[in-house]
Amino acid sequence: MDKQIISRDGTRIAYARSGRGPAVVLVSGTMSTGATMAPLAARLAGRFTVVPYDRRGRGGSGDTAPYAVAREVEDLAALIEAVGGDAALYGMSSGGALALEAAASGLPVRQVAVYEPPFAVYEGGAEERAAYTRNLTEALARGHRGDAVEHFLRLTGLAEEMIRGARQSPMWADMEAIAPTLAYDDAVMGDGAVPRERLAALTVPVLAVAGGAGPAWVREATRAVADAAPQGTYRTLEGQTHRVDPDVLAPVLAEFFHQK
Asked: Are 90 and 151 in the same domain?
């Protein structure tokens, strides 16, 4: 991220900018930085001004306590202002929930596209989310960042042996470094329910995309987002999982963002 803006509360937000055309801001998900959006950005830059960024507390961005979802919305407002005053948003996973909240908050957003926002529509999902929030809050309060990461990985369904293996991997230190931001994404997701009333207030087109090779509940949650938005559209990308191929996703986003 080679550029910076200052958000309303004084927090430094690092971002990158490439390409030409209408601005599209890319919002990363949990345990991710703007760098994870680079492959997608490269595929969109031929038709758009593409703006990945480090969400607060990650990568080259700063952080300011106390955290509130509204501060992340202000970060997006500052980015949109920096790139011309209006933009489309694309959000990955929990970043999709943040993008939708930013649009519902009245930012100058033309369109919103999301990929698999992980709302807990499955049976027992609300209880699982509540337990995760309790465990995460306790681990972070004690300074046990590794435990916090483990709680998140369990929430995603990762097997215990794979979690043990992840602890021994070179990437574990980087995951622990941004573990406090797990609480930020947890706040963005709220109680895990699809925010239907909030989505019903959206006045811009929404594209909700899910992979056809992932769990059925993920597609159900994604479709629920499209159904709740007055101008919502749902798409399934056959053969794709949560780790979507940017070569498959980029053309779908480009078609949507070129619509008037």
From this structure: no
Q: Which residue has the tokens 């309790």?
A: 134
Report if pTM > 0.85: yes
Residue 49, SS3 per DSSP: strand
Task: At 222, list the tokens.
Answer: 């994604």
Residues 83, 133, single domain; the answer is no
Q: Does 103 share its domain with 227?
A: yes
For 74, residues 6+ apart whose C-beta sits below 8 A from its C-beta are 7, 8, 9
> Which residue do the tokens 């009245």 mark?
106
Gyration radius from the chain CA atoms? 17
Contact criterion met (CB below 8 Å) for 188 and 69: yes
Cβ proximity of 91 and 76 under 8 Å: no
Say whether both 92 and 141 belong to one domain: no
pLDDT, tens only, 240-259? 999 999 999 999 999 999 87
Could you tell me whether strands 12-15 and 3-6 are parallel, antiparallel, or unpaired per DSSP bridges? antiparallel
User: 4: which strand partners?
Assistant: 14
